[in-house]
Design goal:
The protein folds into 2 domains: 170 residues, no CATH class; 161 residues, no CATH class. The chain contains 2 helices and 31 strands. Strands 1, 2, 3, 4, 5, 6, 7 and 8 form an 8-stranded mixed β-sheet that branches. The chain is elongated and about 60 Å long. The termini are far apart. 42% of the residues are buried.
Length: 338
């Protein structure tokens, strides 16, 4: 992929009225590749080796594009028409109250974070996707229906992605994003993030939390055991260890018995690389209560245990709590809440 150097400038690819700014609940603060990070800069991902990535924005030919910023490498890049562009000057996203929402095929929540500076400018949204062992931010183009990210292999596109939203008006359907929590990045050698959802326990009684990881293009559940510094998933019959993961935090959820169909409010952690949605279940095995993946196509729980992938027929599935109707369902099923 071609790489060129770019200093922040404004061209004429769109009619842009800079006086017509879009109201924001956060800040885009000017920065440079050689400067330090401003307060409350938002970390949005990581390089394959774990180096943090931040997100910014910069103008190119009159359009505003998201920028992938890696301060430790003094690197800032954006991709335009498959060209990887080095950016010296940019604005970096700062603030709090952000969430990541799973989406696909150009679908964008109403409170998604756009990098546009004018209502007359074409909106490009901030998204991210797992690529190898990395978690890479980029631009979501709703007209094309894809997320585009910059990688060493070139510009890559994904039809399934996380989209960045801001909590100020965080509503999906009739339920607030706060109730659905967020996926928080963490490393297996560090503490579990605050508010992490407990999934169960290992055979020796140590607590297990709900996590997700990317493996070979699949976003799948993981069992997180902080006391053992473990983040393990399963794939193709094997239990696989990971160094980084995302923990489900501050979500209003319940475990209910799986009754042969995926509930409407089942918690999804993402999709397989073939596009199939993945849900989170847990089951009892060898004295443990272990989380794993549930697929619509198989309706069987797959868990990592003893360095193998174990299938369980009778299990519980994780759902979001939801108002009176769901409360009645919870009571009928005698669910366990966390």
């Amino acid at each position: 992929m071609e790489c060129i150097e770019h200093t922040n400038r404004i061209g004429r690819c769109a009619q842009v009225d800079r006086a017509m700014t879009i109201p924001q609940e956060f800040e885009w603060i000017p920065g440079t590749v050689s400067g330090g990070l401003p307060p409350m800069a938002l970390s949005v991902g990581r390089e394959p080796e774990g180096t943090p990535i931040y997100v910014g924005r910069a103008d190119y030919n009159g359009c505003t594009f998201p920028v992938k910023i890696v301060p430790e490498k003094q690197s800032a890049h954006m991709t335009v028409d498959r060209v990887n562009i080095f950016v010296r000057d940019f604005e970096i996203l700062c603030g709090s109250g952000f969430r990541w929402i799973r989406s696909a095929k150009g679908h964008i929540p109403s409170n998604a974070v756009s990098c546009q500076k004018s209502s007359e400018e074409t909106a490009l949204y901030v998204g991210r996707a797992h690529h190898g062992e990395g978690l890479i931010p980029g631009r979501i183009d709703t007209a094309v229906g894809c997320l585009f990210i910059s990688t060493e292999e070139g510009e890559m596109s994904y039809i399934s992605y996380d989209v960045l939203v801001h909590d100020h008006q965080s509503i999906v359907g009739s339920q607030r994003i706060d109730d659905r929590g967020q996926w928080v990045q963490a490393a297996c050698y560090g503490p579990v993030p605050a508010g992490a959802v407990r999934a169960g326990h290992d055979s020796d009684g140590t607590e297990i939390y709900v996590g997700r990881v990317n493996h070979e293009g699949n976003t799948i559940p993981a069992k997180i055991i902080p006391e053992k510094k473990m983040a393990h998933t399963q794939h193709n019959g094997q239990e696989i260890g990971k160094s980084h993961y995302e923990a489900l935090c501050s979500a209003q959820v319940s475990w209910v018995p799986f009754l042969g169909r995926i509930p409407k409010e089942a918690v999804s952690c993402g999709r397989l690389k073939n596009g199939e949605q993945v849900f989170i279940g847990r089951g009892s095995f060898m004295g443990s209560l272990t989380p794993g993946k549930v697929l619509q196509s198989s309706k069987i729980l797959h868990i990592p245990f003893g360095w193998n992938e174990v299938e369980i027929d009778e299990f519980e599935i994780l759902i979001y709590n939801r108002n009176k109707g769901n409360d009645q369902l919870n009571e009928e099923l005698s669910v366990k809440k966390y």
